[in-house]
């Protein structure tokens, strides 16, 4: 079968459909990025969230329950103030949890190589838990995932377990993560533009293709020993602390502030 | 180049090296799984962590600092008791954070198809943020990632921001996540065994290959509309709440308790 034709068909079908999201539109902070991606013949976005702070009234004992049964007490894509949280928590009956969910984006890619380039852009921009999915019909999707979350139980059986002072402190942390998340989205947009320029250049000058590969040039190893090491123990897993777990792409440079 | 030969070389090199992890050995709860994977010619593990509760004395204002500067106040792969946490927090100077880091595993795969099968096993077992990385030399690694974390700021500039009662409650949540995490590792082991049996069967009976593909049979769509929808807004991203963000593999069945 002609993969390119099938991809074009998928893309047309996807982009022609109504936005089925609750909000019904792309989040403000990622509109430009989504547009840039959808303007490329080799990509289209299938879902996105710019990042948000939310409070869920979840199941008892810290276990989340099905979304359909799970009550959202608060959702915001903007910095959050204490009073909104206090008001929201008054409505809790179960175990309410405050979460910061960072930027997430799913991009269907024409072929694996396109996904590889986008994956490198994502990791270089600080989205170190990004990964590729290849479905049965060759449907290739890059999930851009950050590691920059927060998940804080706040109430048990509807009863608040923390002080207002703590909520103030927590929101300060959450709002700063929101700020950093925004910076990373901007970084991703800029890295993507450069990568697309290089790719275009390499297509017009195939002889410099290798040089033009953003993902494969000028990489720093964060930890050469580790990169070579067996590391079946915790060593590589310790990367999680720094919000990344990418021994598979240890040749990809990362940002100090992520580490 | 002969990909299989190169893969065998990589595997021999990796498994012959000393375990460079701080612990110097594979975590008890994943030894069997790691052994099962490394016994397959198409796989080898490059890092693993069974899951752990840790307290980090991080940077001020909720931003983590480089691992080398980041002080571990407590790390345990077993359920955690309040007194240990209280003692650990007394040593905090900065912003201490309690984290539950679930199971993470990195598996280098001989070829993309091997990674696809393992990816489906991982997602079917509840590890819904798993993803594939393909490096420049075709190095193909599946990162098995859960979504079952916890990240809770506990102290600011060395000062405890929560009550002991809250810490008790929080540890109850963390320990339950640890339990659920163990169950998922067992589920992953069993799903993997079945997938390997099917793959072996399909190799001996190529005519039933399609049927034998664990990743491509008996799948339920969690949400067909969503799967087909543009969903560039929050709809798909809402999956995050349930700990998954896999529109790219929406044809893969998931476990109710994950949703």
UniProtKB/TrEMBL annotation, chains A, B:
It is an enzyme of class 2 (transferase). Pathway: tRNA modification; wybutosine-tRNA(Phe) biosynthesis. Residues 224-233 have a biased composition (Basic and acidic residues). Pfam families: TYW3. Residues 202-259 are annotated as: Disordered. One of its GO terms (molecular function) is methyltransferase activity. Residues 10-193 form the tRNA wybutosine-synthesizing protein domain. One of its GO terms (biological process) is methylation. Keywords: Methyltransferase, S-adenosyl-L-methionine, Transferase, tRNA processing. Its EC number is 2.1.1.282. The keyword Membrane does not apply. Gene3D superfamilies: tRNA wybutosine-synthesizing-like (3.30.1960.10). The keyword Hydrolase does not apply. It catalyses: 4-demethyl-7-[(3S)-3-amino-3-carboxypropyl]wyosine(37) in tRNA(Phe) + S-adenosyl-L-methionine = 7-[(3S)-3-amino-3-carboxypropyl]wyosine(37) in tRNA(Phe) + S-adenosyl-L-homocysteine + H(+). Belongs to the TYW3 family. Probable S-adenosyl-L-methionine-dependent methyltransferase that acts as a component of the wybutosine biosynthesis pathway. Wybutosine is a hyper modified guanosine with a tricyclic base found at the 3'-position adjacent to the anticodon of eukaryotic phenylalanine tRNA. This is tRNA wybutosine-synthesizing protein 3 homolog. It comes from Otolemur garnettii (Small-eared galago).
